[in-house]
Amino acid sequence: MTHANLPQQPTFAEIAPRLETPAMKARVADLIRRYPSPQAALLQVLWLAQHELQWLPQAAIEWSAHQCKTSPVHAYGVATFYTMYQKAPVGKFLLQICQNVTCHALGSENLIAHAEKTLGIPADGAHVSADGLFTLLRVECLGACGNGPVMQVNDDFATDVVDGVVTMPKSISLTTERFDKIVAWCRANKEKGLVRDPLGGTLAGDLGHPGAEGASAQKQNSDYAPPPPALAVKAIAGTGVALTWKAAPEITELRIEHSSTESGPWAPLATCSPKDKEFAHATGIAGDCYRIVAVSGARVAKPSQIAKAGV
Ligand code: FES
């Protein structure tokens, strides 16, 4: 979208009552504390603002930048890079059609042309159909190339309507006929909208979905994909030893271990919360060794590198 065709923008005073609430402030604070720096939470805070307002006016982008202690121009660059952020009000059903390589080779341009003609709007994410129901948007790979060409309606894949449910059955691509079926379903269900599958998508009929009956895929076990270890662990001796580190946002607990030699044995010293970024070992001395075991729920990372207390 060029600057020339930006939609009419609300002022900050108009959107502030939705953003400056105690609940939003608590949510933003919670998001920011999960990252090493406030700026790292920008994608999440933009997403939160969009969820609240249903789109991202410029004043909301600036608000997000302020929350994340970054510049408005940086936040604007991020918001305009990703098609998941809507820079104009959208209809009740946001239809995103993939134009990337696989879908393109399988005919997505014909589908986009058909969709534009059917709904009477361009696929630029900046228009709403005359009935107020639809916005069309070209997007890059949706990660479902095996079903290409593929469409996403709001948050879920949609290539067909089966038994009254908008879904993406295994190996079923979007065609002009199926697009028309989905549009007809949306019109017939405009009051109800599209209810999201709590398991994370309209893939419930697909055997690749762990929640589907007879699925071959399994739910993740607690030992699947161990969390990353704490990084940049440093130990500085002075009055006692000051330990600092960096931990990934999904970490729920940090266990600090101590030894007088690098080869161990290691004894538990303290447990820190994921909010903590430092620990003071009052009786520590130069030469003491420390390592941190990061924990995420039931998953345990390998120990961090050993930090030997220097002065
Ligand atoms: S290229 Fe369309 S989903 Fe990957």
What characteristics describe this protein?
311 residues, Arc Repressor Mutant, subunit A, 14 strands, Glutaredoxin, binds FE2/S2 (inorganic) cluster, five-stranded antiparallel beta sheet, 3 domains, Immunoglobulin-like
Overall description:
The chain is an alpha+beta fold. The chain has three domains: 79 residues, Arc Repressor Mutant, subunit A (Orthogonal Bundle); 96 residues, Glutaredoxin, CATH 3.40.30.10; 78 residues, Sandwich (Immunoglobulin-like), CATH 2.60.40.10. It is 26% helix and 22% strand. It has eight helices and 14 strands. Strands 9, 10, 12, 13 and 14 form a five-stranded antiparallel β-sheet that branches. A four-stranded mixed β-sheet has the order 2-1-3-4, covered by helices on one side. Strands 7-8-11 form a three-stranded antiparallel β-sheet, with no helix packed on it. Helix 3 packs antiparallel against helix 4. The termini are far apart. 31% of the residues are buried. The site of FE2/S2 (inorganic) cluster has 12 residues, from helix 6.
